[in-house]
Write a structure and sequence with these properties.
Helix content: 10-25%
Largest sheet: 8 strands, antiparallel
CATH architecture of the largest domain: Alpha-Beta Complex
Order of helices and strands: EEEEEEEEEEEEEHHEEHEEEEHEH
CATH topology of the largest domain: Naphthalene 1,2-dioxygenase Alpha Subunit, Chain A, domain 1
Strand content: 25-35%
Structural class: alpha+beta
Number of domains: 2
CATH class of the largest domain: Alpha Beta
CATH superfamily of the largest domain: Naphthalene 1,2-dioxygenase Alpha Subunit, Chain A, domain 1
Radius of gyration: 22 Å
Length: 341
């Protein structure tokens, strides 16, 4: 690998062989939706209840197809009215009249794969090396779902993933939310690799200010929670928080869309089984997580170099960094697999 391969930017060529989030399922409605991924403009539209995705460029005069309109089956270009089906085949050229022959080159440029999962649309521009991650709780009817607003930030997807997996920054970055109750010391914890994924587990004391049992005198303020982080390469992340004494589980899904060299779109979702259908409690939980994310972005958007160093010699690591060091190993293996040694 070259030195540039050891620095994972938002448009690194290895990322073309991966699954990426590009929209929430609810964003893809009756009209075409333009998104950016790895510096490439794409268009999404629904065709017979399936989501189709192509490079956002008509083969005729290269006009953006996202300016056009959909009828639930086909997408019509706004420039000359060429109409394309869900497979990208041109099915009508109005200027040539009914029954005219369609040039074989009149096809859209497809992505390799599209999938809907956990309320998200994921796209693989080229044949993916690693499988798409899955949040089991998103399919569990006992868990209620909530979504934070999608946020666009000047940030590196690699550094955002690093931040999500980092367990040592809580008392400092998150002083305004939960960090004041966090101990600075990070005890040794377990990290387990599983192919293109890994899991990091840690249990620690915390002040459970959400637990009504504390006010009722049923449980102490300081309780235990079990944190289970999972990364599915490259940027599909989740954190399951199990509250040991109070019971209940909070799952955070964190999905990163590298749009361009300097832009990421961030999707965060919650799944909780401890709110008893209380909409106000879910709204409060979403507001709290949004405040946490804004604290993280205050640091992440301040980086000069937007990329994740993959060479372990480029930074200083400690035993508190086991999860973020494993992130570099997984993504480094991904780059070597796609780009060669």
């Amino acid at each position: 690998m070259t030195n540039s391969d050891l620095f994972l930017t938002n448009t690194h060529p290895a990322l073309r062989r991966c699954w990426h989030p590009v929209a929430r399922s609810s964003e893809v409605q009756t009209g075409p939706l333009r998104v950016m991924l790895l510096g490439i403009p794409l268009v999404l539209f629904r065709s017979q209840d399936e989501i189709a995705c192509f490079v956002d460029r008509c083969p005729h005069r290269h006009a953006p197809l996202s300016l056009g309109a959909c009828d639930g089956i086909t997408l019509r270009c706004a420039y000359h009215g060429w109409r394309f089906d869900g497979e990208g085949k041109c099915v009508e050229l109005p200027a040539l009249g009914p029954g005219a022959a369609v040039p074989s080159q009149a096809r859209l440029v497809p992505v390799a794969a599209v999938a809907e999962r956990s309320g998200m649309v994921f796209v693989a521009p080229e044949d993916p090396v690693a499988p798409l991650g899955h949040i089991v709780e998103s399919d569990d009817p006992t868990f209620e779902a909530g979504e934070l607003p999608a946020i666009r930030a000047r940030a590196s997807a690699g550094l955002l993933a690093d931040n999500f997996l980092d367990m040592a920054h809580f008392p400092y970055v998150h002083r305004g939310t939960f960090g004041a109750d966090e101990a600075a010391e990070v005890e040794p914890y377990e990290v387990t690799r599983d192919g293109w994924a890994f899991i990091a587990r840690r249990e620690h004391p915390f002040a459970n200010r959400e637990d009504p049992g504390v006010e009722q005198g049923l449980r102490p303020l300081v309780q235990s929670r079990r944190l289970t982080y999972r990364l599915d390469a490259p940027f599909h992340l989740q954190l399951r928080i199990d509250f040991v004494e109070a019971g209940g589980t909070n799952v955070i899904g964190f999905f990163l869309q590298p749009e361009s060299e300097e832009s990421c779109r961030i999707y965060t979702a919650l799944w909780r089984n401890d709110l008893d259908g209380d909409a106000n409690s879910m709204a409060a939980a979403i507001k709290f997580e949004l405040e946490v994310l804004e604290e993280d972005l205050a640091v992440q958007e301040a980086y000069e170099e937007l990329g994740l160093p993959l060479d372990p010699r480029a930074e200083v690591h400690t035993r508190a960094d086991r999860s973020t060091l494993e992130l570099r190993r997984v993504l480094g293996d991904l780059v070597r697999t796609v780009c060669g040694d």
